Structure formats: C-alpha cells, structure tokens
Fold:
Amino acid sequence: MKSSVITFPGSNCDRDMHVALKKFGFNNKMVWHDDNELPKSDLVVLPGGFSYGDYLRCGSMASKSKIMQSVINFANSGGLVLGICNGFQILVETGLVPGVLLRNKYLEFICKNVFIKVDNKNNPYFKNLDKEILEFHIAHNEGNYFCTSDQLKQIEDNNQIAIYYSNKSGKIEDQFNPNGSLNNIAGIFNKEKNVLGMMPHPERMIDKSLSGEDGSLFFKNLINNIK
Amino acid sequence: MKVSAIITLKKDVLDPQGKVIQQALDGMGFKDVNEVRQGKYFEIDVKEDDPKKSRKIVEDMCNKLLANLVIEDYKIIEIQ
Structure:
C-alpha cells in the first residue's frame, strides 16, 4: 500500500506520520508542497503543524499551495485523504470538508490526551475497528469546530460526523469538550467519506512505552481496509 | 490604486478575543462598552488605475483567500 505525506513549510508532524505509516506497512513517500504531481498513492496525509506560520487563518495559505490541486483532484476521484490537526484546518480551507476551525473557546493552546467516540464505521477509516472509544492526543490552538446551522443539518443528514470528544465510557457531553467544538465534533468526513479531517493525532499513539496504542489500532485497521 | 478592505466575523460567530478585550477594557474603567468585535484590515496596492476594476480584483481576492465566507464578511472601505 502506498501513501504520501505532504510537507508544507511549518509542518512538524510529517515525520511522525511517516514513521507511523511505515510501522504499519505503508510504503510512504514524503511530498513537498511545491511539487505539482502526487506520486501514485492509496492514501494521502496532510500532517499537523503550523503551515505558513498560521498566517491569515490556519491552513489558508497551505490550501492554495501547488500540490493541493493534485490532492483535490485525487480526493474528487475517490482517493483517501486524511488531514490531522493542521491538516484538518487545510482540508476545511480547501472546502473538501465543510465548516471551519476557530480559535479554542478559552483561548488556550491545548496539549493533552482525550477520548474520542467513533460515530460512524461505514467508511474506509473506521470500518472493522474493534473499539469505539479511543484515546488520542490533541495539541492545537484552533480546533473549535464550527459550521452554519444549514451545514450542520447537511452533515448530520449525510452521517459525516466521524468522531466526537467524549469521556472514557463514550459519553458525549459538554464537560468533555476541550475546545468549544460544535456538538463535541472532533472530526468529519466529506459526503463520500473518502476524506477525513480530525484534530486528534493517531500518529502520537503508536508506542505502548511512550504513549498508548490506540493509534496503532487505527493504522492497522486502516491498512487492512485499504488492502 | 490602493484598496482597503476589512474582514469581520459574522454576527452569530463567537469572537473570544473580542470578549477578552472587552473584559480588559472593563477592568480599565471603560464601563460603557456593549460589545467588542475584532477584525482584520488589508491595504492592497493593485496595478490598476480604474477604481471599479480595482474593487473587483480585491473582491475576488477576498472571496478566494482573504476571507473565509463561512465565518467572515468583508467590506471594501476605501479605494484611492
């Protein structure tokens, strides 16, 4: 299985993602933002970080970079595109997934482990996953998901909400919402479910001795689903 | 021509920075404040001498990059 991780100026989770993808069997290539063409890929990942120093709005400049036209074409032809953290912010700025990510409600940079509840398994990312509640890491300043009420109705009608912030037992309540996200939304799909944007970092949860292994479950399951 | 544009958050979008600024103002003794909303201001010098065309160019920029229309509105406030 072939994957590509796009590196933008200011990306800083690109190497971690490369390590994670390789560990679980992907033949991964790093792709520079200024390239025109994507290598042949089964999965494209937009990694976390601070692309273009978060100038203007997080992800806005990266969404207009050269490689993104190929990524958009790849997504529109059904290719799997996963955006993590800043990658999620880039995805919303391209319009591949609806909504925006505002500054965290209490204006703090949040860096901690959270539990997320997988809401929708009818897609290539979470299909066949044994667990529904995962412990992932978040580290962001702008993760406060927002969309208009019309958009919310649309994404609910199309089952586009992928994951919610929850507690250990999967309760989705305001007190477990770290950043003020609308309805505790932590990640969403496009309508076709081949594009997934989420704030939590599965690539930071792939080693038992360092953090946890729920990210390992995610990647193992993902590559099995793609095979 | 020089075109000035301001970008503001839409009315129903929460502006936590504006809120904090308001609280700080309140603490400093500015008690007559109903609300503070923070925005962005751009001055763009375009290679175009016609005001109408200059406005069009900057509007296009606002639609495509400078503003995110899900949460923001823009307004061209000056062309000179």
Q: What stands out?
A: Chain A touches chain B through 19 residues (CB under 8 Å). Chain A has a mean pLDDT of 96. The domain at 2-226 of chain A is CATH 3.40.50.880 (Rossmann fold). Chain A has one domain: 2-226.
